[in-house]
Amino acid sequence: MSGQAMAGPLIAVTGRPVAAGRITNWRQGALAVPMPYVEAVARAGGVAAVLQPVPLGGGGDDNGSAASLLGGFGGLLLTGGGDVDPARYGEEAAPEVYGVDEVTDAFELALLDAAIALGVPVLAICRGVQILNVARGGTLDQHITGRPGLEAHGIPGVSGSTHTVSVEPGTRLWEAMETSHAVAACHHHQAVARVGDGLRVAARCADGIIEGLELDDAGFVVGVQWHPEDTAADDPAQQRLFDTFVTRAGLRSRFAG
Predict the structure, then answer these.
(1) Which residues are catalytic?
(2) What predicted TM-score, i.e. pTM, was given to this entire model?
(3) Rounded CA separation 83/243 (Å)
(4) What number does CATH give the domain 2-256?
């Protein structure tokens, strides 16, 4: 549509339900996404549309319904949030696991699978890169906070941390950010453990924690463990990641249209 083309590519952004009373003067529940995601997409020329996590399909056809849902979008942005259910990667939950939601897990896994099948560009952030890894058969380290020998990676909802990550030359992440060393803002208590099938490590922290993954031979499917949206307004390398993602989404939209 010409109006959409003028406005820039439409980006599907995974939202989070907010309980009633959490927003001042709102008596009802809400659907939300932190503004830095939306602002980074807008600076890149895209238009963010927040998606509610809902049960998809029926009769096991989650991926078919997800494909229909993604049909009008140029890109998929998987945002941060609660933990992925450890049962998804064959483990029992550690005591520190929080925020598990079966509907959200199923929704995002189906969206990701559909995006890959359709060639929709994907940028997966924090929980998003964990979803990407689990979707490809990988596992997660369920709690790294305070572990000896590791840098501070922040605590979700409590505190953040900033550290340097090394970006692997020649990767899509490196091409997008145009740097081999990025200053990353993060607040995560889990991390990628066994890397999933078809994924390659695109970035690491000095302590060995995997900070970036991307899917080989699948267009632009890139995930980072840190939060580039937090510093993108002031850090050109972080913003370039969104710029590249939205550019790729725009190309996909024009081709699909």
Answers:
(1) 126, 227, 229
(2) 0.93
(3) 27
(4) 3.40.50.880
